[in-house]
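ENTRY TYPE: protein
CONTENTS: sequence, structure tokens:
***
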Amino acid sequence: MENLIVAHVDADGILSARIIYLFLEKNAQVYFPEWDDFGIHKKTVEVIRSAKPKNLYVLDLGSDRESFNEVRKLLDESIIESVIWIDHHPPDCDLEEFKDLKEFTIIHSDRTCTAGLSYQYAKLFGNDVDDWIGIWAIIGIYGDASERSELSKKILEELKQKFPWMFGEQVFRNTRYKIPQMYTTYFNTPRRIAFHYGARVAFNACEEIEEFGSIDLLKIDDPLLLAQYPYTSSLKYMVTLYRSIRKDVADSAVVYDYGSFIVCLINSQYDLGGYVASVYVGKYNKPVFCINFGISKYTGLVKITARAPENTNIHVGNVLRECFGGGGHKNAGSAGVDPKYGKEYIISKIIEHIEKSRGDLF
């Protein structure tokens, strides 16, 4: 195999994968990890070893020492020849430690998201950047809520000259949205309904949208037309299902207020922790850790998803990385925990870490 792309299952990861896939002129296989996780571990490493790609692209999966050491092993054993690691999450190590690996290129910045960095990479090394690379970059940046970041602003301003129609506004359900925001839900939702299978559906829908020739395929409800685009049709179904169930799940959450942060408990087969946490961030203006026990029947792990307001002094990504081996950034993060640990253990770990680090951005 010439190229293998391993990417996160959210909008940023899916659309980064699409950008690099198009940059490689579709000469690549794409793998989405089975669990909404960061880094390359266990099953993902097994997939890489089995595929033995010449070139490995790792996108939007965090920047951690354990994963980088796995890369070192893969290179030392000649399983792969080169690695391009593109990411925007805060690293848990000094990236300079891995400069001795000549075939290991780390492209890292917190001034945009991975879709933005992937666009920059394609523009720098590609002979002619495909229009769809630019369109997917716009939606990826908005999908990661990175549009206000320094480098994202420059990228979006550049792309606005080429795709001005992508930067208008539309009213949906009495709320005014920027046009890219209207599309982000189609790429952030699939993992919440169908995990890595959903990410694959969204990635394949990109192919259909490109063939159709317009992103507006996502707005068309003609069943005869959609029958010709099964992945896009499935994608739209998942979004409809998500919108129909999320409010009831949020309303049924059990909420604990610990002063500086909130814990919500839900029991859903769907990965709705991000939505529920966002609802209660809006209500309490505090960091929220949403623990979903119901999802363990399908993933084998209890899912903890965190969201935090912009002015937080609790770095929720760090909390989940230090406590449970998860990851994320200051305002969002996730982790998986073995179901044998109950809510008391999970909550006590969060409280212990936050109390120990009080006074810092932790």
